[in-house]
Amino acid sequence: MQHTRYEGRKFEETTIEFKPIFQGKIISLQVDTVRLPNGGTSTREIVKHPGAVAVLALTEDGRMLVVEQYRKALEKSQVEIPAGKLDSGEDPMDAARRELEEETGYQCGSIRLLHSFYTSPGFADEIVHLYLAENLTKGEVNPDEDEFLEIEAITLEEAQRYMAEWRISDAKTITAVYAWQVYQLTGRI
Question: Are residues 103 and 181 in the same domain?
Fold first, then answer.
């Protein structure tokens, strides 16, 4: 089935002024003054992000690979599926393969896009491309120098328990768990 992206322009806001506030290593922040559909004006604080990938990696014995790491913004450790930001000009599928191998040491024999979604469209343009990776082969873990991870292969029941305990509480991993559940029930995603 061929999908086309909806380019909705209903209620479009026109940028009158753009004011850069911050340019970081990963994100930038800007404040736009916009003309509203009714002719009025307002301001929008916008976080710009290069996009990211996330990988639902399933082992031959029916487990999902996850990594636990500390998330400073939340001031706690999180259990998440392997994920990371896109490098400039990088193909998302190549990035998904790279992140899977860097964070877990696994390579995949097959990989396919499940869906792409915006994380917080009210203030950010970050898009996450969620992939399903199967036919995994164990290799060497090679995390970024500032990444400290613990890898685990969990069952669907363990994933659901982690969600109930808030060990898994991010949108990409919760989405992956629900996709995995559908996959187990129907054989399709």
Answer: yes
Total structural domains in the chain? 2
Do 30 and 110 fall within a single domain?
no
Is the domain of 157 the same as that of 117? yes
Name residue 118's amino acid: Y
Sign of the CA dihedral 120, 8, 41, 17?
positive
Q: Report pLDDT digits (tens) over 136-185.
A: 999 888 777 888 999 999 999 999 999 999 999 999 999 999 999 999 99
Closest CA to 114 of 45, 185, 43, 176: 176
Query: Can 158 be counted among the known catalytic residues?
Result: no
If one counts every other C-beta atom within 10 angstroms of the C-beta of residue 38, the result is: 6
Residue 62 within a domain = yes
Residue of 126, 145, 152, 157 marked active site = 145
Structural domain range at position 19: 14-48
**Sequence-separated (6 or more) residues with CB below 8 Å from residue 169:** 78, 163
| CA 32/CA 28 separation, integer angstroms | 13
CA atoms in the 13 A half-sphere facing the CB of 134? 9
Same-domain check for residues 38 and 84:
no
